[in-house]
Amino acid sequence: MKKALLFVIFALLSLSVNAQFLNTGGDIDHERLNFGFLLGIDRGSFVVAKQSDFSIPGSNPYTPNDTLQAIKPLGSMGFSLGLLANLNLSKNFDLRFTPKFSFIDRQLEFEYNKASDRKVYNKKVESTFLELPLLLKFKSDRQRDVRMYIIGGIKFVTDIRSKKKKNDDSDFNPDDDRKLVKINNSFFAVEAGIGADIYLEYFKFSPEFKLSRSMTNVMKKGDDNLFTRPLAGLFAEAFHFTMYFE
Fold first, then answer.
1. 133 vs 205: CA distance, rounded Å
2. Which stretch is the leader sequence (predicted)?
3. Backbone angles phi, psi at 62, to 5 degrees
4. How far apart are CA 238 and CA 246, in angstroms?
5. Can you tell me whether residue 9 is helix, strand or coil?
6. CB within 10 Å: which end of the chain, N or C, has fewer?
């Protein structure tokens, strides 16, 4: 998947650089405000903060006879789609608002050493996010049909709470291994990345790579169960490959 994406990007760059004429991209650089849409492929994970006594036998009242050996974040793939509004501030700076829906899951692996065998629990943190990023884009000078750029900013993220999460509040006992690990419904995150504006005849195409991470602990407070007790905190992070069409 990654190799195919890189091949497409470099092929488009080569075609643009070697073109014998300059494309206008629909004269987009002469517009003060322009709009478009985006499609993205995302990979989400967590940065895990553990309790200092997470591996001490008996520290978790829900597993008094078991020893927790490790808590591992597992990355999962997802996708996103949305819109963009771009405000041209100057020759080299743009302000971008890119609201989008992001469908991405994150996973945690809990490895226990029981008296009789080894037990592994995989807990999927399911989320459908509405993300509202406000980003500052710094563009290089145009080289034929290509501009390179760096981008960064802050975004507000809110989770569209699922029925499954609501049922989890009351349906299961705290020591039930079906319990979920839940995150806050809303949080702020920072993100930064690089990309390229490729000017075609009637529009501009921009492949972009970004990293994002929540600014604070996103683990929901008040949940005390088999899987949340050994956790001191979770920080949501993601790698984004996004294609913009303006």
1. 19
2. 1-19
3. -85, -10
4. 24
5. helix
6. N
Give the CATH fold of the 2-245 domain. Answer: Porin (2.40.160)
* Residue 71, both tokens: 């808590």
Taking 70 as the threshold, does the pLDDT of residue 6 lie above it? Answer: no
Beta-strand runs (E) in 51-117 = 67-74, 76-88, 93-97, 100-113
Residue 203, judged by CB atoms within 10 A of its CB (0-12, 13-18, 19+), counts as middle
Distance CA 197, CA 146 (A): 6
Residues 246, 33: Cα–Cα separation, whole Å: 11
Output the pLDDT for position 9. Answer: 55
Q: Which long-range contacts (CB under 8 A, 24 or more apart) does 10-14 make?
A: 12/198, 12/205, 12/207, 13/146, 13/196, 13/198
Residue ranges per structural domain of the chain:
2-245
DSSP tag of 29: G
Instruction: Give me the mean pLDDT over the 122-149 stretch.
Output: 91
pLDDT, averaged across the chain: 83
What's the whole-model pTM score?
0.80
DSSP state letters, 153-179: EEEEEEE---HHHHHHTTSS-TT-TTP
For every residue of 34-59, DSSP letters joined together read EEEEEEEEEEEEEEEEE-TTTTSTTS
